[in-house]
Specification:
heterodimer, A: 328 residues, alpha+beta, 2 domains, B: six-stranded mixed sheet, four-stranded antiparallel sheet, 8 helices, 10 strands
C-alpha cells in the first residue's frame, strides 16, 4: 500500500490471484513463528530457564488439581457408605417392625433395609463390648430395635440422605433416626476449602507466569531497541514489529506447559507407591489418576494463552513506546 | 515533491528549531540542505520523515499534507521515502543481504522477488560481491553504501540523506555522491543534508541554507557560499 504515491505498486496489491493475499498472510505468520523459535534457540540456556520457571509455576496448580481429582474419586466411594439408622419405639414388637421394614422397602429412594431386633443388638453388644457378664444383671434390655436403611446411590449424598432421613422419621413407629454423615460433611467441607485454596493459589501462580513472561519479553524488546527503531524508519507497522515477540511469548508458554506436564508426570510416578498404600489402608483399590488427554490439551492451551497474554502486555507498552529519534 | 509552507517547529522546552520555513523541492530534483549544526537541518528532515510534527505550518509530499497522515498511516507513508543516515544504522547481527532485504520483507514480497531486488540494489552501489558478508567485515564507505542499497531497494520516489558523507574521506564522499546522482538521473528526488561545503561547491545543485531555523539562501550553490561561511546574506 502506497500512501503518498498512488502510482507505486506494492507486492500484495499487484497480485491478481484471489486468495493469494490470505495465503501469503499465513505464510508470513508461519515464517515469523519459526523465526521466533530460532531466536529462542540462539540463547538456549536463558530461554530454557524462563521456560523452566513457567513450567514449575504451572506444575504446582496442576499437581493440586490432580490431588483434588483423586480425592474426589475417594469421596465418591465413601459416599455410598452413607447409612441411616432408625431407632424404633420401645413398644414396637417384631411383627410391627416387620411391617415397617416392608413399608420402607417400597420407598424408591431405599436400596435395602436391615432389621436388627433389640435382642440381636444386645447379643452383638455383649460379644463386642466385653461387658458380657455385667450385662447379665440388667432386668430389661435397654437397647431399642434398629432399622439400618441403605439409600440408593442417588440418595447417598449428604443432602439426599438427610432428605430421606426426614421422611423416614415421620413414620409413627420410629423414635428417632440418625444419619452418620457428619464425617462425610466434614470431608466435603475440607475438600471445598482445598478447592478454593487451590483456585486462589492457581490464580496467583498463573498471574506470576504472566508477569514472568511480560518481563522476559520486555527485556527482549529493549535488547532489540536498535532493530525496532530501524524497522520503524523503513516503514514497519507496530503489528509487524510486535508479531515475533508475541510468537516468542506463545512458544515460552507452550514449552513451559510441556515442562509442567513432565514435572507432574514425574511427581505422579513418585507418589504412586505411597498412594496405593494409603488406598489399601482404606480398603479401596484405586490407582492414581493422571492428566487425561483433554486436560493435557487444556494445560497446553492455557500456558500458550498465558504466554501470549504476558508478551502482549509487554509489547503494547514497549513496542509502541520506542520511536526512532535523534538519528536522522 | 516536498513543499514546506510557513513551517515552524518549537520543541518542548521552547527551543525553536525552524521558523516559518518555505521551500519547494521539485519532483525528480536533487538538492542540498546545509547550515551549521543546530541550524535545523535534522529537524527539517525529521518533519519530512514524520518523526516529528510541525508546531505550525504545512509539509506536503507529492501534494499530500503530512498533517493529515494519522499515526497508523505513518509506516505506509515512510515506505515511499528512502532514508540514509550518517551512522548507516545497519543491523550488525545480520548479513548484508538481510539488512538490505528488510524493507521488502516488511512489504511482504516473495522471497524470489526479494533476492532479485536486493541483488539489483547492491549491484547499483557496487557491492554485489559482499551479499553474504556480515557488516563488521566491511569498511565505513561500504557500510554507507549498504545503507543506500537498503534505502533504494523498494524504489522509493524520494530519498532523504542525513550527512551521508559525514564519516567518509573525500574520495569516498565523491563516490557516494555519484551514486546519488545516478539515482537522481532515473527520476528519484534526492534531498541531502550536509555541511561538506567543498562537496556542494563541486556539484551544481539547488542548495537550501538554514541558519538558526530560518531559510536564508535558496539558490544554486556557488563558491561565495564558502567565503561567506554561512553569514546571513540578508
Amino acid at each position: 500500500m502506497s500512501l503518498l504515491f498512488k502510482q507505486r505498486k506494492s507486492p500484495a496489491a499487484s497480485s491478481n490471484v484471489p486468495g493469494h493475499r490470505v495465503v501469503m498472510f499465513f505464510i508470513r505468520h508461519l515464517q515469523q513463528a519459526f523465526a521466533s523459535i530460532g531466536e529462542l534457540w540462539r540463547m538456549p540456556v536463558a530461554s530454557l530457564l524462563t521456560m523452566a520457571v513457567i513450567g514449575v509455576s504451572l506444575a504446582l496448580p496442576v499437581t493440586l488439581h490432580l490431588l483434588l481429582k483423586n480425592s474426589e474419586h475417594l469421596r465418591g466411594d465413601w459416599d455410598n457408605a452413607a447409612q441411616i439408622s432408625l431407632f424404633l419405639k420401645d413398644n414396637i414388637d417384631q411383627k410391627q417392625a416387620q411391617k415397617v421394614v416392608n413399608r420402607i422397602k417400597l420407598y424408591p429412594q431405599v436400596n435395602d433395609v436391615q432389621y436388627i431386633s433389640s435382642e440381636q443388638a444386645l447379643g452383638e453388644f455383649k460379644s463386642l463390648s466385653g461387658f458380657g457378664e455385667a450385662l447379665e444383671y440388667l432386668d430389661t434390655n435397654p437397647l431399642p430395635s434398629l432399622l439400618l436403611v441403605t439409600p440408593t446411590t442417588q440418595y447417598s449424598s449428604p443432602e439426599g440422605a438427610r432428605d430421606l432421613l426426614q421422611k423416614l422419621q415421620l413414620q409413627p413407629e420410629v423414635a428417632f433416626g440418625k444419619l452418620d454423615i457428619t464425617w462425610l460433611e466434614k470431608l466435603t467441607a475440607i475438600i471445598t476449602l482445598l478447592e478454593d485454596g487451590v483456585s486462589s493459589l492457581g490464580a496467583l501462580l498463573l498471574l506470576s507466569v504472566i508477569l514472568v513472561l511480560a518481563n522476559t519479553i520486555r527485556l527482549a524488546i529493549l535488547n532489540r531497541r536498535e532493530e525496532i527503531e530501524v524497522l520503524k524508519l523503513v516503514g514497519a507497522t507496530n503489528d509487524f514489529i510486535r508479531r515475533p515477540f508475541l510468537y516468542t511469548g506463545i512458544w515460552y508458554g507452550l514449552i513451559g506447559g510441556l515442562i509442567a506436564w513432565i514435572i507432574v508426570s514425574l511427581i505422579l510416578i513418585w507418589l504412586e507407591g505411597a498412594f496405593v498404600m494409603l488406598a489399601d489402608q482404606f480398603g479401596t483399590e484405586i490407582t492414581l489418576a493422571g492428566l487425561d488427554f483433554a486436560e493435557f490439551l487444556i494445560l497446553i492451551a492455557l500456558s500458550s494463552t498465558l504466554g501470549w497474554l504476558g508478551s502482549y502486555l509487554s509489547v503494547m507498552r514497549h513496542v509502541y513506546e520506542i520511536e526512532p529519534e535523534n538519528q536522522l | 515533491m516536498i513543499r514546506f509552507e510557513e513551517v515552524t517547529k518549537v520543541y518542548n522546552g521552547g527551543q525553536q528549531a525552524l521558523n516559518r520555513v518555505n521551500f519547494h523541492l521539485e519532483a525528480g530534483e536533487m538538492a542540498f540542505l546545509t547550515g551549521h549544526s543546530g541550524a535545523g537541518k535534522s529537524t527539517l528532515l525529521k518533519l519530512v520523515a514524520m518523526m516529528e510534527r510541525p508546531t505550525s505550518g504545512q509539509v506536503y509530499i507529492n501534494g499530500h499534507n503530512l498533517n493529515k497522515i494519522t499515526k497508523k498511516q505513518i509506516p505506509f507513508a515512510r515506505r515511499d521515502i528512502g532514508m540514509i543516515f550518517q551512522n548507516h544504522r545497519l543491523l550488525m547481527d545480520r548479513s548484508v543481504f538481510n539488512n538490505v532485504a528488510i524493507p521488502l520483507i516488511i512489504e511482504g514480497y516473495h522471497l524470489s522477488d526479494i533476492k532479485r531486488r536486493v541483488a539489483a540494489s547492491l549491484d547499483k552501489v557496487g557491492l554485489l560481491s559482499k551479499l553474504n558478508n556480515m557488516p563488521h567485515t566491511l569498511s565505513g564507505g561500504e557500510l554507507q553504501r549498504v545503507g543506500i542499497a537498503r534505502a533504494i531497494v523498494n524504489k522509493p520516489p524520494l530519498l532523504l540523506a542525513d550527512e551521508p558523507t559525514g564519516n567518509l574521506d573525500p574520495a569516498l564522499s565523491l563516490e557516494t555522491m555519484r551514486v546519488f546522482e545516478e539515482l537522481n538521473s532515473v527520476g528519484v528526488a534526492v534531498l541531502i543534508a550536509t555541511h561538506d561545503l567543498g562537496l556542494i561547491a563541486r556539484m551544481k545543485y539547488h542548495t537550501f541554507t538554514l541558519n538558526q531555523g530560518q531559510l536564508i539562501q535558496d539558490g544554486l550553490s556557488s563558491t561565495d557560499l564558502q567565503e561567506s561561511e554561512f553569514e546571513p546574506v540578508i
